[in-house]
Specification:
196 residues, mainly beta, 1 helix, elongated
Length: 196
Amino acid sequence: MSYSTMKRSIEIELISGEGLQIDRKPVKRKTFCVVTIDQKTRVCKLDETGGSYPTWKDKIEMDMPINGSVRFISIEVVYRTSTGAEKNVGVAKIPVTDFMGGFAPQGHVNFLSYRLRDEYGDKSGIVNVSIMVKPGGNDVKYSSPSMVAPACSSQAAVNGQMWRPRTSSSMAVTAGYGGRVVTGVPVWCTYHQGSS
């Protein structure tokens, strides 16, 4: 395994949604999330009764390459109709730099809220998540014991510096939003799980 295939274990908790709507009408019930990292997807549990304000509180653990190839984690909120059809409520793209690198150590829980956008780029609600880069030596896989992974974002590692670049992740523009600005704002929490 080379540097291009090193991975870090990420724990994502899909906490809740706020003001979910389809075609500007509130979602009635039965929503769930689909998390995509590097073309791998995981689905959270279905909220049966929350409607426009669902509560999932579902933790998903996934591996993420740390070579800079993954720039965003995608969280899609889906609504299941009474006939069983599934409709996309909206998608939030979370920049990896919002939870990896900078001053947040491994094991630090980042509480984040992001605006969902529908297929037309219109606002369709908010998704609340927490993301933690799992601490410990077992979650990074190397081909050689002498290789050491950078403990910061890929952008800072390239520069050889251990600080977050001045560019704000909230200013990142993606093609998926039709040239609009991503409105995610990381909410930093002082909670830190100690490694055992």
